[in-house]
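Tutorial, part two.
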Amino acid sequence: MTSTTSPPPTSPSRSGGLAQRLLGTKVADVLAGPHDVDHYLELLRPDWAVRRIRGEIVQVEHQNDDSLTITLRPTGTWPGFEAGQHVEISVDVDGVRHRRSYSPSASAHPRTRTIELTIRRHPEGVVSRYLKEHARVGMFVGLSTPRGEDFVLPDPRPRRIVLISGGSGITPVLSMLRTLTDECHDGEISFLHYARSPKDLLYADELERIATAHPNVAVLPVYTREDAATGDPRSVLTGRFGVEHLRHVLPVDEDAAAFVCGPGALVEAVRTLWAEEELRTPLRFEHFAPPVLPDLDPDQLGDVTFAGSDITAAADGSTLLEQAEAAGLSPKNGCRMGICLTCKCTLNSGVVRDTLSGEIGGVPGEEIRICVSAPVGDVSVDL
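Running the prediction step on this input gives:
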């Protein structure tokens, strides 16, 4: 594991008071034309901004061969976030701007001034591959405002909190854990994390430190590969999520809240057992990848019309986003897993299958997430 860190940061100079208010007006943008004020401020100093949000990379840590953690110091336009939310980052690769959503893993406590993102490289992921190979201290990336209002800690906090994650789905629930400990929350916290083997366990040292420092926190790694838990005394559970695992982290079904984030199979297993046990504890969930669904029957495939581009193509069972890209279009998108809503467009006609749930539906005029919507029969979208 390697890491690089910038020198201790100095407080970046930012426009403030009356000057900032004046620079942030539309009149200032008109006078500055052809670009907005932030464009020129960025040329002077990348950490100056009045509207746009950017983040300077101040630390890079390569967790393993596939993952890295970057720490960002945002511009003064950053509004802060709630633990569990996600943020879209943008980078320019070969002259083209690409966007991808990630969940901050740092504490959302007000005293935290930086944003920490753990990024897993995907073979076809432009942003993840670029950052894994090129991220360096001093680089700036674009940032969106934080998004996602459902997958956040309840206020007031319940007495018992269950956090379940798998793989890189650890990031939003780790943010919750760090936030709770920074708040000195004294209720019981159970953190159940699934990884293939100890070397695949992200933040292993950090989780150990938190568990040691906070007696009310139980960290329970579960390794899914046979015999992978050898030598780890914390690994008291084995195999996939089931009743035994549930009873271990939620012995009392009252004054509690639960969160699960990870692969679709893990999330669906938790949701299914929650329903079978008729638990009253609220369960909030988030996929970082859609579950794998059976292929559509060939009779359910038709033609996809991208009405705004006057393009029609034969459907192949993949999502509308993937089919639009295969047709040469470049729809705006972010997370590619149905979370950030960046890719929403209007369904003109036909119905679609939600690849997260498998449900088929849709009415003309409805806005759909094309990254997790697969056409069923003939479909037209305003794209």
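The longest helix spans residues 170-182. In part three we will examine how such features are distributed along the chain.
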